[in-house]
Design goal:
Helix content is 49%, strand content 13%. The chain is α+β, with helices and mostly antiparallel strands.
Length: 471
């Protein structure tokens, strides 16, 4: 469900909006609500680590029909201020940080010093609704106030921070549900506008924003997840896919040219087989089988290389020995693997068909005549080979020019003058909001950090700031 009134990176709603839809909707089986990410300090067995989680409502997992791998998922009983704080762990996070111990269910873990009872473990295939942004854990919406202390009430009408996903009732069209939700939403906006006009309390998200009551709601499919990354980087990903397609085209043209040369060397063999009674379809099938075998061997080699290259990349990113539990989570994506295999099969058929057809278009008399002399291959085949070479060079030139532009852009970014001296400058950040919820503790921690750095003999000057210096 999309709210055009929101000015966040993804469209969102307030808690009263969610409660209104949940209570009065006649077209939805249920509504899953989730907030933005939260970074916390997790204390377990005397070790403190940082983890990123997500706030969800009690019906989140039931609406998405997610079953636990161990224990139970959150329920509506967990999502209240009076309930015992509960948490659901991500499967891979549970493997890495809790050593896949099923006995952790029911035990307590500290988040920013606040005890949470581990209710269960999510299944390994579930990563949330935002592709590319996997949460380490999920906690109820009402647990926010115990983790983050600020001056804003996230449960009042003007705090826009929730994303809503609804499941339609059987037989109910999406348009009917959208119209129903739009009517309720506009009524809520009208009521909110009246409340804002009578209140002097600032809007925590958009203090100067006037409420437009003439807005609607858009439904979008959550089948492939909901994330702004898909819209933000779709153009760049299409460019990369096009580059990969051009590389595939070059490789296929090169293989086709080699197959043509091989077919030229086998002209006498093919002619003799035809003279002995072999049918052209049978010879064509044999040659295509050889092309498919080459494609299969290439796919197998590519899978092996990608497997080892992925693990090597993990070691490079970790700059040390990668955790065994993390390496255990690296496995092929069978959808991507199947798609790549299908592309390889189609490419093998398309680019192996032309050399195969060319090989079977021979006659015994002409072949023996050419074999007995130093005559050159027929002009048609030479023309086809030259065409493939020209195609390879043209596509390779496009890729080289594109790569050169990318390198030039990278060099420009690396040498860009940020406007301040960068030599002997160390910049780091502290997540004060999550680790030190109160403003007083944050300021005190900043002062202590500043004083400790200033006392070092290697530090000439030090300062703190709320904004990160960016080029």
């Amino acid at each position: 469900m999309v709210n055009p009134a929101s000015h966040s990176s993804n469209c969102s709603f307030s808690f009263p909006d969610y409660d209104n839809f949940r209570t009065h909707s006649q077209s939805l089986q249920g509504i899953a609500a989730y907030g933005g990410g939260v970074g916390v300090q997790v204390d377990w067995n005397g070790q403190a680590t940082r983890a990123n989680g997500q706030y969800v409502n009690g019906d989140f997992f039931s609406v998405l029909q997610v079953r636990p791998a161990c224990g139970r998922m959150l329920t509506s009983a967990d999502d209240s201020a009076a309930a015992t704080a509960a948490i659901v762990l991500d499967f891979h996070y549970w493997q890495m940080q809790f050593n896949s111990d099923p006995n952790v269910v029911g035990r307590s873990v500290l988040l920013n010093g606040v005890p949470f009872t581990i209710a269960g473990i999510a299944p390994p295939e579930f990563y949330g609704l935002a592709p590319g942004s996997r949460a380490n854990f999920w906690i109820p919406l009402h647990a926010r106030d115990s983790l983050v202390k600020d001056r804003f009430d996230k449960f009042e009408a003007r705090s826009i921070w929730l994303y809503l996903v609804g499941r339609l009732k059987p037989g109910v069209p999406a348009e009917r549900a959208r119209v129903e939700a739009e009517v309720m939403f506009r009524a809520s906006l009208t009521s909110e506008a009246s409340a804002v006009a009578a209140s002097t309390k600032p809007n925590p998200d958009h203090p100067n924003q006037a409420i437009d009551t003439d807005l609607g709601i858009t439904f979008t499919s959550a089948e492939r997840g909901l994330a702004s990354l898909r819209l933000q980087y779709s153009t760049q990903l299409f460019v990369l896919m096009a580059a990969a397609g051009l590389v595939l085209l070059i490789a296929c043209a090169n293989i086709a040219n080699l197959l043509l040369a091989r077919a030229e060397a086998r002209r006498k063999e093919i002619a003799v087989r035809l003279a002995l009674g072999a049918s052209r379809p049978r010879l064509l099938s044999q040659l295509l089988t050889e092309s498919m075998l080459l494609a299969f061997l290439g796919c197998a080699a590519g899978v092996l290389v990608s497997y080892w290259a992925t693990r090597g990349l993990v070691y490079v990113l970790f700059s040390s020995k990668a955790p065994a539990a993390f390496l255990a989570t690296i496995r092929p994506n069978y959808v991507v693997l199947g798609f790549s295999a299908a592309v390889a099969v189609v490419a093998a058929i398309l680019f192996g068909l032309v050399p195969a057809l060319t090989s079977t278009r021979v006659t015994l008399g002409s072949t023996l005549k050419i074999a007995g002399t130093n005559a050159s291959p027929c002009e048609g085949r030479s023309r086809l080979g030259r065409t493939l070479v020209t195609l390879e060079m043209a596509v390779a030139l496009v890729l080289v020019i594109g790569a050169g532009l990318f390198v030039r852009t990278l060099i420009t970014l690396e040498t860009l003058d940020p406007g301040f001296r960068t030599d002997h400058l160390l910049l780091f950040s502290i997540s004060r909001k999550e680790f030190l919820p109160s403003a007083e503790k944050s300021e005190a921690a900043s002062r202590r950090c500043l004083e400790s750095k200033a006392s070092l003999g290697q530090v000439s000057r030090s300062c703190t700031g709320a904004l990160v210096l960016r080029a």
